[in-house]
């Protein structure tokens, strides 16, 4: 059988010869699955910094303040149906 | 050293392999022993594999120091050392270590070994032969031993055995 130290040394030598960025690229090429860095923006709402993206991690308090901001910035609130939140259809004249 | 391996496949594929004297190299990111040609040590395992219609009986020749057995104590300890070596050279938490990445990471560690040490021509290891029925820490599932040959040129002999020929 092949000398296991020879294999271990060869792998060590290969990885040590690279910079960290090169090593990560090389390991990706070898097939390792990497965690995707978060692409979600961090935004400040009130006093809390929250991530805004597909999954909201905001606390109920932050969620409430988001709603408040949405309400304040919403124009024409009076013209929408309160239940469906849709503007009433114009009558077809 | 000479190794005897059994490769289960369809009859059409087996005939093509015999005609071309060349195996198709399995390439994907979840091959257990990375890219290469796969054989079982035991003919019965090759027969069970996807209910193979035909078995290719092969003889492979390599030098003694070109064979790596991960089942051996030395081999498994080396595999573990290499996995630790890889994870220690990159920042924590970058490599996905969840359960579903295990197969990809297994393939990637072996790929790294093949790539860093071209002297390896064959890697052998045992893998569970059944799907998990109940996941536990101790894996008591029966295992079957297989090996992966890196290139066709080490395969010196191929013969075809049809499933029907092995029946009583």
Strand order of the largest sheet of chain B: 2-6-5-4
What's the helix-strand series of chain A? Answer: HHEEH
- What is the average of the pLDDT values of chain A? 69
How far from one another are the termini of chain A?
89 Å
Tally of DSSP β-strands of chain B: 7
How many β-strand stretches of chain A?
Answer: 2
Element-by-element helix/strand order of chain B? EHEHEEHHEEE
Task: Give me the number of helical elements of chain A.
Answer: 3
Q: Into which percentage range does the β-strand content of chain A fall?
A: 5-15%
Alpha carbon gap, first and last residue of chain B:
33 Å
Oligomer status? heterodimer
What is the molecular shape of chain B?
Answer: globular
Q: State the secondary-structure class of chain A.
A: alpha+beta
Helix content of chain B: 25-40%
What is the overall number of helices of chain B? 4
**Taking all residues together, what is the mean pLDDT of chain B?**
90
Q: Fraction of residues of chain A in helices?
A: 40-55%
Low-confidence stretches of chain B: none
Q: Strand count, sense and closure of the main sheet of chain B?
A: 4 strands, mixed
Gross morphology of chain A: elongated
């Amino acid at each position: 059988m092949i000398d296991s130290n020879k294999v271990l040394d060869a792998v060590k030598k290969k990885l040590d010869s690279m910079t960290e960025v090169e090593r990560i690229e090389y390991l990706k090429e070898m097939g390792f699955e990497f965690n995707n860095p978060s692409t979600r923006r961090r935004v400040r709402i009130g006093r809390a910094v929250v991530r805004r993206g597909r999954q909201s991690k905001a606390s109920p308090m932050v969620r409430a303040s988001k709603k408040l901001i949405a309400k304040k910035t919403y124009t024409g609130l009076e013209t929408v149906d309160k239940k469906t939140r849709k503007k009433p259809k114009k009558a077809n004249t | 050293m000479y190794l005897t391996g059994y490769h289960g496949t369809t009859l059409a594929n087996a005939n093509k392999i015999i005609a071309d004297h060349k195996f198709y190299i399995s390439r994907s990111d979840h091959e257990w022993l990375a890219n290469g040609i796969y054989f079982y040590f035991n003919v019965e395992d090759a027969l069970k594999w996807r209910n193979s219609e035909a078995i290719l009986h092969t003889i492979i020749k390599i030098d003694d120091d070109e064979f790596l057995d991960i089942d051996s104590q030395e081999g498994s300890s080396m595999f573990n050392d290499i996995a630790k070596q890889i994870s220690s050279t990159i920042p924590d938490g970058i490599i996905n270590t969840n359960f579903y990445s295990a197969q990809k990471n297994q393939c990637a560690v072996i790929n790294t070994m093949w790539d860093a040490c071209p002297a390896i021509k064959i890697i052998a290891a045992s893998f569970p032969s059944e799907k998990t029925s109940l996941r536990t820490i101790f894996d008591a599932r029966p295992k079957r031993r297989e090996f992966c040959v890196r290139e066709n040129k080490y395969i010196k002999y191929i013969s075809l055995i049809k499933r029907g020929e092995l029946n009583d």
